[in-house]
Structure formats: C-alpha cells, structure tokens
Amino acid sequence: MTKLFPGNGRFFLSDEQWREYLSPEEFHILREAGTEAPFTGEYTDTTTDGVYSCRACGHELFRSETKFASHCGWPSFFAPVAEEQVRYLDDDSIPGRPRVEVRCANCDSHLGHVFKGEGYDTPTGLRYCMNSVSLTLTPDED
Known about the structure:
With about 140 residues, the protein is mainly beta. It has a single domain (about 15-140), classed as Metal Binding Protein, Guanine Nucleotide Exchange Factor, Chain A. It is built from 2 helices and 9 strands, in the order ααβββββββββ. The chain has helices spanning about 15-20, 25-30, and strands at about 50-55, 60-65, 65-70, 75, 85-90, 100-105, 110-115, 125-130, 135-140. A 6-stranded antiparallel sheet has the order 3-4-8-7-6-5. A 3-stranded antiparallel sheet has the order 2-1-9, with no helix packed on it. A hairpin with a 7-residue loop joins β5 and β6 (about 100-105). It is globular. The chain starts with 14 loop residues before the first helix and ends with a strand.
C-alpha cells in the first residue's frame, strides 16, 4: 500500500476524506474505534521481522522484536517504538470493564487497547492488543 501521508506530524482529515482513502472495514476500525473479529487478522500469527506502521498514515508504531504470541486472537506487542508514537485514552465503552485505548499519535486513528498485569512474561508487563486492520507491516530488508 502506498503511504498517503508521511508520519511527520499531526494532521486531521474529515470523515469524508477518510472514507475516500480507507476501505469500509478500515474506516470502521481506524476512525470509529471498531474491532476486527478475533483470529481473523493478517498479523495475528505473523513472525516476520519488520516495522508495524499505522495503516491510515504510515506512522511507525511497533517493531517485530516487541511482538509476542499472546494467543488472544489479535497481534500483541509489549511496547511501542517510542511512547510519543501513540496516545492513550480511557475507554469506558463497556460498562464495568474499563480499558485504555491506544491511538496513533500522528493521525489519531484507533489501533486497539493496552492491558497490564495479565501475567505475560514480557519486559514491560503490558499487552498492546492491536487490530491487524490498523497496521501495515514493512518487512526488514535482508
């Protein structure tokens, strides 16, 4: 996929502009904070070395070195490339189950959620549970 926007600063588009650029599924997940069905995403079990970027704007988000097999149905990472690459919002959309939403710091697209204290053996104790639809993997060159 050709990157429409460089990941070099915050930008905003109207919903109409996003709809022209994104597929209906991408728009629903990235712009309306939807969630893809578990175990259906293209990156759930991927082990390719590379960089995962925001599908909407190309902003670098995660490296394959931080991806781990959580067996939860979505790609999981224990840390972003850098904290300033993402932003966090409290998400109380499910009554009685508060969560922390993760968004792209460049274009404000929904990526998924981050959870802590689940018992995964990772350096941070965090699980960034991302939608494959929100990401684009650029493999490392050999």
